[in-house]
């Protein structure tokens, strides 16, 4: 199924949780913030929220800036 | 030297140990950052928030910033108040604290901030408990409104972002320093340590520098130079510069009548 | 939060000690600044700053020209009534003083207004004593309406009013409000005002702020120099003006620097304020508040006024009479004796000869 991650349609297996998606991309969960369908998803919910078709996911992290 | 003993910069209830605030963008390598922070003495360090690029793996910038620093995320990328608020909330969710530099830019040519949207975002975020430091085009009535909206400090630009052109808005910033009862932090445009010292001699509470350090041939040495310049400028301000005498002119005395009988 | 909060911060302030530590080089350093702190202003009022008076005068003159040009606004007072319920020990209109009490009728107000208008003045200051019974707000409002046709700017110097009352008078055409605190020292104030509504220090102190809130265009504050320590009263007058200007940035704030003069009550000043003292005060005030008006009355003698014109003054009264209806009946007793009885034309000629343009009309509400 397709979900929208950081503005791009992305293939995800049904039943994937937010946490599993992040870890699947090789990202340490402690370094990012996730917005799930325009709401900030608290870290403790990542393991239980399963992605559904056309969900919107924003995964952001800090970079250099002034 | 008596003035210096009690000279503290307090923002949002925190004592800030250095009047040089440092940005972390544009370094040739993030690995330089810990050394630059140390050499400059900076205590408040800014970062930005971006979508994760799944293809280019990078080390998280936060891991390069010494633990004793206050992290101040900015809202760069925001084009209006709503987007700035959204970015600020995400930044806070990372658990890095509640400081936020509001930066709302709807103009890609000059990168000048949108003061009106900045006021709106300040009001919302201050009410949510953020320590808000808005970046703005220097304007007295806007600064007053930002303060009423709950800003902890005001950050007028010296000249456009990244231009390294110095404090072109000097006269307007002077007015803010005179009239606003909150720290005025000159942000953007400071290209050389002498310009940072100039801002401090004018009575600015602090300066925020990024490009000038990050793009120097030796960023660590330049960081140190800025740290020293900011300190020197502050000491000079507290010391009260001597009178600059205008060219002596043969003007007729105005108080002679007091001595006539 | 009123100006009293700022004044009260100096309750335990050691003024004598502060003045003693002021040195001349400190005064010079302050003269080089573009913006003075409140304590810088106090430094310029120190006895030691007398040694830098000429330097202060040059700076004050330059600032005045920069902000006001080579102009001088002329105005004149019109005493509407002298009924009073106060016993201000220094005032000729003290209720205990035996003098004929009167108030102008509408016809007399118009006649007196005509007499003044003939001199060319467009700027008038209306005065009454403190009597809500004889000269209620409605009486003052009626007077303003009668004079509105002839005068483009109407000022008011009457007893302290509420915000609503000031708003009522603003609606009737009053543009400016003048209120002297007389002295900012609450203890001295109490002794000088033994009875009457004016005894209420705080109600009077906050009156200019209420006028700001009521939509007047300009306020004028000041102390009557000589009633108490003039340096402290000068300091607090400046503090008061600065407070109003900061809090109400759209208001035109001015300060008057009246000195006590002899009058029918015969009350002697507590301290003698010399010409030099007066000059120092006016210069310090101008340097502290470069954009504020400074008003000079005819309490001062003609030759002194001529010399003071270049030292920061922006408004001068002329063709003055301090008696009720005095321009119609020459023999009335005034509130205080004036020391410069020159006509408007004579004062205007003096100003022209000094390079000033006398301004009769500088404002008209559209």
> What's the main sheet of chain B like?
5 strands, parallel
Shape of chain C: globular
Specify the overall morphology of chain B.
globular
The fraction of residues in strands of chain C falls at 5-15%
Span between N and C termini of chain B? Answer: 47 Å
Q: Give the structural class of chain B.
A: alpha/beta
Which sequence of strands runs across the widest sheet of chain B?
5-4-3-10-9
Helix content of chain C: 25-40%
Q: Catalogue the unreliable spans of chain C.
A: none
DSSP helix fraction of chain B = 25-40%
Describe the fold and architecture.
The complex is a heterotrimer of chains A (66), B (261) and C (366). Chain A is mostly beta strands and 66 residues long. Helix content of chain A is 11%, strand content 35%. Chain A has one helix spanning 18-24, and strands at 2-5, 8-11, 33-36, 39-40, 56-64. Chain A has a five-stranded mixed β-sheet with strand order 2-1-5-3-4, with no helix packed on it. In chain A, a hairpin with a 2-residue loop joins β3 (33-36) and β4. In chain B, β9, α7 and β10 (206-209) form a beta-alpha-beta unit. Helix content of chain C is 39%, strand content 13%. Chain C has helices at 3-8, 15-21, 24-31, 38-44, 53-68, 106-117, 137-147, 163-171, 186-192, 201-205, 207-213, 230-247, 275-288, 302-308, 344-353, and strands at residues 71-79, 123-127, 153-157, 176-182, 218-223, 252-256, 293-296, 315-317, 357-359. In chain C, α4 packs antiparallel against α13 (275-288) and α5 crosses α13. Chains in contact: A-B, B-C. Chains A and B meet through β5 of A and β4 and α3 of B.
Please supply descriptive tags for the structure shown above.
heterotrimer; A: 66 residues; mainly beta; five-stranded mixed beta sheet; 1 helix; 11% helix; globular; B: 261 residues; alpha/beta; five-stranded parallel beta sheet; three-stranded parallel beta sheet; 9 helices; 16% strand
């Amino acid at each position: 199924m397709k979900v929208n991650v950081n503005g791009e349609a992305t293939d995800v297996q049904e039943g994937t949780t937010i946490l599993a998606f992040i870890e699947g991309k090789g990202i340490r969960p402690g370094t990012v913030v996730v917005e799930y369908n325009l709401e900030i998803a608290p870290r403790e919910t990542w393991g239980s929220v399963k992605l559904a078709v056309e969900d919107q996911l924003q995964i952001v992290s800090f970079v250099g800036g002034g | 030297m008596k003035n210096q003993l009690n000279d503290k910069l307090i923002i949002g209830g925190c004592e800030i140990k250095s009047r040089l605030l440092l940005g972390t963008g544009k370094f040739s390598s993030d690995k330089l950052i810990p050394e630059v922070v140390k050499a400059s003495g900076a205590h408040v360090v800014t970062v930005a928030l971006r979508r994760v690029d799944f293809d280019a793996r990078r080390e998280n910038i936060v891991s390069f910033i010494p633990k004793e620093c206050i992290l101040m995320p900015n809202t760069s990328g925001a084009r209006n108040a709503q987007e700035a608020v959204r970015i600020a909330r995400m930044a806070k969710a990372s658990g890095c604290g509640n400081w936020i530099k509001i930066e709302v830019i709807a103009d890609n040519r000059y990168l000048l901030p949108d003061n009106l949207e900045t006021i709106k975002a300040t009001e919302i975020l201050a009410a949510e408990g953020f320590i808000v430091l808005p970046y703005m085009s220097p304007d007295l009535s806007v600064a007053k409104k930002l303060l009423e909206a709950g800003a902890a400090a005001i950050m007028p630009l010296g000249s456009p972002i990244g231009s390294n052109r110095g404090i072109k808005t000097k006269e307007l910033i002077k007015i803010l320093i005179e009239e606003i009862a909150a720290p005025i932090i000159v942000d953007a445009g400071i290209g050389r340590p002498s310009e940072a010292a100039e801002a401090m001699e004018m009575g600015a509470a602090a300066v925020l520098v990024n490009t000038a350090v990050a793009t120097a041939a030796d960023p660590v040495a330049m960081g140190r130079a800025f740290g020293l310049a900011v300190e020197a400028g502050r000491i000079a301000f507290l010391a009260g510069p001597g009178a600059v005498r205008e060219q002596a002119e043969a003007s007729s005395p105005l108080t002679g009548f007091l001595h006539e009988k | 939060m009123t100006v009293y909060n700022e004044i009260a911060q100096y309750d335990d302030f050691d003024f004598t000690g502060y003045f003693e530590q002021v040195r001349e080089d400190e005064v010079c350093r302050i003269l080089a600044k573009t913006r003075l702190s409140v304590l810088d202003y106090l430094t310029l009022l120190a006895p030691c700053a007398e040694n830098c008076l000429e330097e202060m005068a040059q700076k004050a003159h330059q600032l005045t020209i920069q902000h006001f040009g080579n102009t001088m606004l002329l105005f004149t007072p019109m005493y509407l009534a002298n009924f009073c319920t106060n016993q201000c020990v220094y005032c000729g209109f003290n209720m205990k003083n035996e003098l004929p009490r009167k108030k102008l009728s509408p016809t007399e107000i118009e006649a007196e207004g005509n007499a003044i208008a003939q001199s060319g003045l467009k700027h008038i200051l209306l005065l009454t004593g403190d009597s809500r019974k004889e000269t209620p707000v409605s009486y003052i409002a009626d007077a303003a309406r009668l004079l509105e046709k002839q005068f483009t700017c109407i000022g008011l110097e009457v007893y302290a009013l509420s915000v609503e009352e000031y708003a009522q008078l603003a609606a009737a055409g009053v543009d400016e409000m003048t209120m002297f605190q007389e002295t900012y020292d609450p203890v001295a104030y109490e002794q000088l005002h033994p009875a009457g509504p004016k005894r209420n220090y705080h109600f009077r102190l906050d009156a200019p702020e209420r006028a700001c809130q009521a939509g007047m265009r300009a306020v004028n504050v000041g102390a009557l120099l000589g009633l108490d320590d003039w340096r402290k009263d000068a300091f607090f007058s400046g503090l008061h003006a600065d407070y109003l200007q900061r809090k109400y940035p759209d208001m035109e704030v001015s300060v008057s620097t009246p000195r006590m003069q002899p009058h029918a009550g015969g009350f002697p000043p507590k301290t003698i304020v010399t010409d030099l003292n007066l000059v120092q005060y006016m210069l310090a005030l101008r340097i502290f508040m470069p954009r504020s008006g400074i008003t000079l009355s005819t309490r001062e003698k003609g030759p002194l006024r001529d010399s003071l014109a270049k030292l920061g003054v922006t408004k001068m009264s002329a063709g003055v009479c301090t008696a009720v209806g005095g321009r119609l009946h020459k023999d009335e007793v005034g509130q205080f004796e004036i020391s410069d009885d020159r006509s408007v034309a004579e004062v205007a000629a003096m100003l022209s000869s000094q390079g000033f343009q006398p301004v009769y009309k500088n404002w008209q509400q559209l």
